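Ticket #4471: structure export looks truncated?
Reporter: QA, pipeline team
Priority: medium

Steps to reproduce: submit the single chain below to the structure queue and open the exported record.
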Amino acid sequence: MKKVRVLYVSIEGNSRNFMQRLAAYAKTQIQENPNNVEIEAVEISDSTDFAEEKAPFFINVPTYLEGGTGIGPEIHEIFTNALGDYLDYHENYKKLLGVFGSGNRNFNVQYVLTAKRYAAKYNKPLLYSYELSGIQSDLQKLYTRIIANLSKAGQ
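Actual output as written to the record:
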């Protein structure tokens, strides 16, 4: 059985809830097919001890922004800085396969903007986005994308 890490940030609990549900969904898929992939959801925060990632992984990023309209040059990320620092640590970003993002569609152009910015900064694809804490079909679609991208990477 293969295992893949998904690093994430959760401030209000939506991302944590989604990642716990994704890991549980992955376990049901392994029961159906032992060749499926287990998800190890790892929360990154200011208190996380940095480590060098040994295998390819994904990140899940909520949208937290501050400044102006949210799309101008004055914008900056808030609350996700620990994840960026973790990715930069020992060039962990080189093992990053892709980015998932969550947000609120009510914020229009700002929807999953933080995930888009991470994808652009590390030149990795934004593989999937979902609203708030996601629904069941988001779990299924995201899990399918994880498997497809692991296969594409030869994992």
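Status: closed, not a bug. The export was complete when the record was re-opened. Leaving a note from the reviewer for reference: The chain has four helices and seven strands.
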